[in-house]
Amino acid sequence: MQERVWKSVREIPDGKTTSYGALARELDFTDPRAAIDIGAAVGSNPIALIIPCHRVVASNGDLKGFAWGLDRKRWLLEHEKAIEPPPPQTASFPGF
Question: Is this prediction's pTM over 0.90?
């Protein structure tokens, strides 16, 4: 199963994301917990930049799990233009 998941993840194009559940449906996994199995397979990816597991996100778009940390996952996705960077912080001063 792991190799099927990794093959599918390799096919996610630059600048795009997919969800754990969408991968489960694409691979015809029918078990209701299949998204968890997908997450385990993605999480055991030994070559994260060749098998771009950072492109797999939660079904609501939240960034979940990444061996190198969520900050790096966010940076990679922003770099690929798959997600928008957060708006810049503006300073607020009381009374202004």
Answer: no
